[in-house]
Design a protein that fits this description.
By secondary structure, this protein is an alpha+beta fold. 37% of the residues lie in helices and 19% in strands. The chain has five domains: 186 residues, HUPs (Rossmann fold); 135 residues, Rossmann fold, CATH 3.40.50.620; 188 residues, Alpha-Beta Complex (Isoleucyl-tRNA Synthetase, domain 2), CATH 3.90.740; 135 residues, Isoleucyl-tRNA Synthetase, Domain 1, CATH 1.10.730; 60 residues, Roll (Ubiquitin-like (UB roll)), CATH 3.10.20.590. The protein binds one RNA strand through helix 7, helix 10, strand 17, strand 18 and helix 16. It catalyses: tRNA(Leu) + L-leucine + ATP = L-leucyl-tRNA(Leu) + AMP + diphosphate.
Length: 818
RNA sequence: GCCGGGGUGGCGGAACUGGUAGACGCGCCGGAUUCAAAAUCCGGUUCCUUCACGGGAGUGUCGGUUCGAUUCCGACCCUCGGUACCA
């Protein structure tokens, strides 16, 4: 680190990080004259070691936080741990370590890794979600929702491993078998707690339109996920027994229904199975596919006639009821009316089982409609529909809705694809559900004074049964309502619960007597949220839901948790995402040791724009390290070794000095836009590299030449500092500019941007035929004259008739010939 | 299956509003420096064609709009993410 030449990242990075820690440089408080800026990257699951996906997320978050800090904001940039989850249980089985201990060890190690990457966190705000001081407020909040009627219990299906006698996550079911036992999984029904997220469906949908800072693609995905639709709920009566309800968005095709299809889990299917062993076998087979929509949708479509007959609500004709493996019990009422002529899936099913196809819609215009080849799924006009013939979609929708409504067989309904959020997990390593079951009083919320319901941590964990399910000393308790003997709920929460409100808790992580206080109102919503695109739906939707419930509880006073969202593409390894389950591929540690944090950060930022997925290659770290020491470091050292610099006098510069200065300010303009608006940090790096290349060529050691270099280097070091903060802090000092964390972003000199000459391209029929270097603002006529003199242009215009000449000022001249 | 992305040299990517395709970096090739090496520096590098100037082709595939398309439109192929118990 001496002025004679070499840059030793090990010494500089260690010193700089020690200084940040010692001075608590990035600690932040609420009182400030500056505007607040809350920058947050999705906190990690402490899986053991960081992988390159983490490095990408946290570097991007850090770059934004540091940039905003330089722009004069009071920046909160916290970090914590999403500490509950399945991998801890898996590790506990494998290594015979209790999940809590394994988790805390991981946190300890990963924290050192984050610190060695030089992130500007306010570590005073750190917490882990497995800390009872955190999850007690989650339990408290759940009991508020419970009281408000936002919580209910119903039975729901889970993957059941019949050998290990345990519930399996979808991830743990591989090719239909339990991952450890290899047994064929079955579905089982269990009583579980649900949160009424559907009560907020309308607002969750509507408020997407008030999130201009979110990528359009994420909003589209959420809209589709919520899946609002307008349709009819229709009753198909049976001769005996209760009617079957179906929901349809296409009542215009009601006259074309030829059968009904119900889910294998539908009561009707079960009823049919009672007297028919073949159906019973079929249902068993259907229940051996795991509980994942993708698997259900991809499996071969199969069905069976249940023998049950229903009546068409208008024609009163008898219709058979089939059970079909592709009908989802969770959506709508678990039964659908099938219109093979106008629904592709029904059409395929009808062909497969020789069910009748009845066309009731014809194309409006002379369109394509060949029912021998496929269903006609577009909207059109009714035919073969009796009284509804010739009506269009809207007309028949209303006519049928009115008719069914008047005879009590149907009603208009707005439906959502979004389902209520099942939060019960039959696992150990999670937040205990604060409910007590009493034979006399039913489910009773644990009173505030008894919170938290703590999870015992020193446990024997065999991976099959959750320890708290076989610890009567833990689960046996007294009913808070009647004082009689009662039992605790031994399920734990879905870990998405913890990550649905952690961002708010960072504002007041040390609050002992409440979930949130006024500090959460000071920090308001997260200004910039950074995280992987894989969270586009579930995590982000659940957090949006929680935020609205917290708002209605008076805990926060904004409508949305995340104002701006940066949804990062995946860091791929061998074409797939890096993850805990993939064995923590891509540990950055050896790269940090060999090339340093700045090089790792820079390589990651340079590799690709944030929203794009890319295949990680370690090689770039070496070249980043090379650039930092042999280009950046050397340029500054070379410059400062020549001694003091005089003041820049922009009016007395030579042409080449003015050009050099223009490039510097153009770069500043570009990177300011890249940082602030475009969020493309790869082009920040390439822009700075270009500028440094230009500076190297410039090589002007005159008085004003050095002043130009001095200004340019100041720009280089400051704009690189969010990405490579350690070396830039050192170089900022060497340029005699003080403490870089206290610096302000530089302003652009508009005068310096003015161009002496511009390049105008000359085209013939849109093809490049020549170039002209002219003064800015050259007229079209002038350009035509000078372009005609170019030999290569003349060659193409000779003997041709020019029909048009297109002129884009200071850019292009295009001769159009016949 | 469904929803949402992506596809540009040997590789990562750039081209921001329809206007010079391939910036910047890696790799590779050639050279300088060196006793030699490392490090560093200089030059070249989409493909075909040409001694050269130049010309032709080219941004997943096919088609369309336009004076001009990586950019807009249509169809298709491949690939990645999500698909409600991985987080």
């Amino acid at each position: 680190m001496d002025d004679s030449g070499f840059y030793d990242f090990k010494i500089t990075e260690a010193n700089v990080q020690a200084e940040w820690l010692e001075h608590r440089t990035f600690d932040v408080a609420e009182e400030s004259s500056k505007p607040k800026f809350y920058c947050l990257a999705m906190f990690p699951y402490p899986s053991g070691r960081l992988h390159m996906g983490h490095v990408r997320t946290y570097t991007l978050g850090d770059v934004i936080a540091r940039f905003k800090r330089l722009q004069g904001y009071n920046v909160m940039h916290p970090m914590g741990w999403d500490a509950f989850g399945l991998p801890a249980e898996n590790a506990a089985i494998k290594n015979k370590v209790p999940p809590a201990r394994w988790t805390m060890q991981n946190i300890e190690y990963m924290k050192t890794q984050l610190q060695s990457l030089g992130f500007s966190y306010d570590w005073g705000r750190e917490f882990a979600t497995c800390d009872p001081e955190y999850y007690r407020w989650e339990q408290w909040f759940f009991t508020r929702m419970f009281r408000k009627g936002l919580v209910y219990k119903k039975s729901a299906w889970v993957n059941w491993d019949p050998v290990d006698q345990t519930v399996l996550a979808n991830e743990q079911v591989i090719d239909g078998r339990g991952w450890r036992s290899n047994a064929l999984v079955e579905r089982r029904e269990l009583a579980q707690w649900f949160l009424k997220i559907t009560d907020y469906a309308e607002e969750l949908l509507a408020k997407l339109n008030h999130l201009p800072g979110w990528p359009e693609k994420i909003k589209i995905m959420q809209r589709n996920w919520i899946g609002r639709s307008k349709g009819l709920q229709i009753k198909f009566a049976r001769l005996e027994g209760s009617a079957i309800d179906v929901y349809t968005t296409r009542p215009d095709t009601l006259m074309g229904v030829t059968y009904l299809a119900v889910a294998p889990q539908h009561p009707i299917a079960k009823e049919a199975a009672e007297t028919n062993s073949v159906i019973a076998e079929f249902l068993t087979a259907c229940n051996q596919v795991k509980m994942a929509e993708a698997d259900i949708a991809k499996s071969e479509k199969k069905g069976m006639d249940t023998g049950i007959i229903v009546q068409h609500p208008i024609t009163k004709e008898p219709l058979p009821v089939w059970v079909a493996n592709f009908v989802l019990m969770e959506y709508g009422s678990g039964a659908v009316m099938s219109v093979p002529a106008h629904d592709q899936r029904d059409w395929e099913f009808a062909r497969q089982y020789n069910l009748p196809v009845k066309q009731v819609i014809e194309p409006d215009k002379a369109g394509e409609c060949d029912l021998d080849r496929s269903a006609f799924v577009e909207k059109g006009r009714c035919i073969n529909s009796g009284q509804f013939d010739s009506l269009n979609f809207e007309e028949v929708f209303d006519a049928i809705a009115d008719l069914l409504q008047s005879n009590g067989l149907g009603e208009r309904q707005v439906n959502y694809r979004l389902r209520d959020w099942g939060v019960s997990r039959q696992r150990y390593w999670g937040c205990p559900i604060p409910i007590i079951h009493c034979d006399a009083c039913g489910a009773v919320a644990v009173p505030d004074s008894d919170l938290p319901v703590s999870l015992p941590t020193e446990v024997e964990f065999d991976g099959v049964t959750s320890p708290i399910k076989r610890m009567p000393e833990w689960s046996k308790t007294i009913c808070p309502s009647c004082g009689g003997p009662a039992e605790r709920d031994t399920d734990t929460f879905d870990t998405f619960m913890e990550s649905s409100w952690y961002y708010a808790r960072f504002a007041c992580n040390n609050l002992r007597n409440g979930m949130l206080d006024d500090r959460a109102k000071y920090w308001k919503s997260v200004d910039h949220y950074v995280g992987g695109e894989e969270h586009a739906i579930l995590h982000l939707l659940y957090a949006r839901f929680f935020h609205k419930v917290m708002r209605d509880q008076g805990l926060v006073d904004t409508d949305e948790p995340f104002e701006n969202l940066l949804a990062l593409g995946m860091v791929l390894q061998d074409g797939a995402k890096m993850s805990k389950s993939a064995g923590n591929a891509g540990d950055p540690q050896h790269l940090l040791d060999q090339y340093g944090a700045d090089a790792v950060r820079m390589a990651m930022m340079f590799a690709a724009p944030p929203e794009q997925s890319f295949e990680w290659s370690e090689h770039n770290v070496e070249s980043a390290n090379r650039w930092l020491r042999s280009k950046l470091w050397r340029a500054v050292i070379l410059h400062s070794s020549l001694g003091p610099v005089s003041t820049l006098d922009s009016s007395s510069l030579s042409e080449s000095q003015r050009d050099m200065r223009r490039v510097a300010h153009e770069t500043l303009l570009k990177v300011t836009d890249d940082y602030g608006k475009r969020l493309n940090f790869n082009t920040v790096v390439s822009g700075v590299m270009s500028l440094v290349n230009e500076l190297q060529k410039f090589n002007d050691t005159s008085d004003q030449g050095r002043a130009v270099v001095d200004e340019a280097l100041k720009i280089v070091v400051l704009v690189m500092s969010p990405i490579t903060p350690h070396i830039c802090k050192e170089l900022w000092t060497k340029l005699g500019l003080g403490v870089i964390e206290d610096a302000e972003w530089l302003s652009i000199d508009q005068e310096a941007l003015r161009k002496r000459v511009v390049n105008v391209i000359i085209q013939v029929n849109g093809r490049l035929r020549g170039k002209l270097e002219v003064e800015p603002g050259a007229s079209k006529d002038d350009l035509i004259l000078r372009a005609g003199e170019l030999e290569n242009v003349e060659k193409f215009l000779k003997d041709e008739k020019i029909t048009r000449i297109i002129h884009v000022p200071d850019k292009l001249l295009n001769f159009v010939i016949a």
